[in-house]
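SEVERITY: medium
COMPONENT: batch folding queue
REPORTER: lab tech (J.R.)

DESCRIPTION
The queue accepted two submissions in a row. Attaching both inputs and their returned structure tokens so the on-call engineer can compare them side by side.

ATTACHMENT 1
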Amino acid sequence: MSTPAAGQELGTFLRAYRALLKPEDVGLPTAPRRRTPGLRREEVASLAGVSIAWYTWLEQGRVAASRQVLESVGRVLRLDDTETRHALRLAGFYEPEVEPGPAAGPRSALQPVLDSWPVSPAVLLDRNFDVVAWNAAWSAVWGDPSAVPADRRNLMWLLVADDRLRGTLSHADWEPLAMSVFQHFRAQATTASSDERIAALYRRLTADAPELSHWWSCHSVGELTTRVVTVAPPGAEPLRMSLASLRPVDAPSSLILLFTPESPDDATRVLTVH
């Protein structure tokens, strides 16, 4: 079952996506003198087949929705598969994944896996995207996470506030990668929004990257998909690497990010950074 906090988050999420739509997007005539952007609540309610009072309560976090009704609302709001899954999780249909056992378990078990990729930077993240383990190639290309204070040793913070990591990426690569990571982080972490670590991380991001305050208040979610980025680490020529994300079967709330050199020359350049 969803918690009251999750119900409030679901309402905020639905309102944010309702505001993005125009009447013509859902086959309604354009009405003059609309005082606020987006669809009206009564329009969403009518298209979803529910009462305006019930839909208002849903956005206020005062009622629980069935899976069928929530999926109907999602179709009206043009939610994609990732966004629909996120709404369902907030409604309690997908329970937040809990890391089995102590945090040291996945780290000790997966460190040899990370180390087996000598020319591919790899990092292990927990469900909050805190950096748990990394290999030598990651330290060489992106910087050693152990040099970062523990409360900042988080992938989102590193991407937006760490000069070494952010400085190795061109702006053309950095912004879409950072936004994709944040959308994936939000999709996973919002289900645990009452967690003090999540709250502390948002406070840290707001304090250390205030110019991105519009990111931290954003409600968009997404998947971290495969992509190729150009990296210019210190002491090496620019190289191209392909990003993949992997979930360990026995630690499903953890995430491995793996950057694989695109060519043998790119792999050789990674070695020159060591």
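ATTACHMENT 2
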Amino acid sequence: MIVLPDSALDALLAQDVPYGDLTTDSLGLAGRPATMRFAARAAMVLAGTEEAVRLIEKAGGRLTQVLPSGTAVEAGAVFLESDGPADALHRAWKVAQTLTEYASGIATRARRIVDAVPGVTVACTRKNFPGAKDLSVKAVMAGGAVMHRMGLSETLLVFPEHRAFLSGPPEAWIAELRRKAPEKKIVVEAGSVEEAIALAEAGADVIQLEKLPPEAARAVIEATRHLTPAPVVAPAGGVTEANAAAYAAAGCRLLVTSAPFFGQPADVKVTLQPA
């Protein structure tokens, strides 16, 4: 599935090659038959390969083989091959490579967290780089995670910054939210064990723990398990592959994280040579 429309891919190519490829054109390489191969320099989970193919095609190249997003590959594995005129492949080269590297980096980090917590849902936040949501969401899903929120329009998540404007007990505004959006779950962020328990007792469906350690998550789960229904306790802020298993061991079945979005891109080796 391609998530970036042709207009977006055209814009990426236009940014990189606005007035032709001065080097390739000046060397007289236009029209010479060539091949281009993408290979993983290290183990990774692929993402964005479909967009890379479309970029190559739009530049004038032809696909010969590709592995889909979501495929885990080992170091050295060739996952995309194309051929065509040398000038066409040179036009697509860096844009397609960089897009695949960044998307695969996200997918690989997401997969590592998912693999660390079997049976637990890993949900990524909307804190992807502005303007890169479509590809970031695709990469998260390629890694086996889900999206926590796509944006502000479809979910109820009450932050302390919202509560600063509210008066009265939490039971009152939680009841009002339930009246206005009866089909939605009410998610509330808490910054302490005590606050989390109070919000759960007030009727919140999901308690999002902001940067609280696994032992705090365990305390909230144990203190609220008697409620009917018991709230979902979801740690958020600082959840990584290094501590995800500890949160799962504490009883959390939903982990909220931004970690996949931040880190090194995957490393893709490109071989572009005469056919």
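NOTES FROM REPORTER
The chain has a mean pLDDT of 97.
No errors were logged for either attachment.
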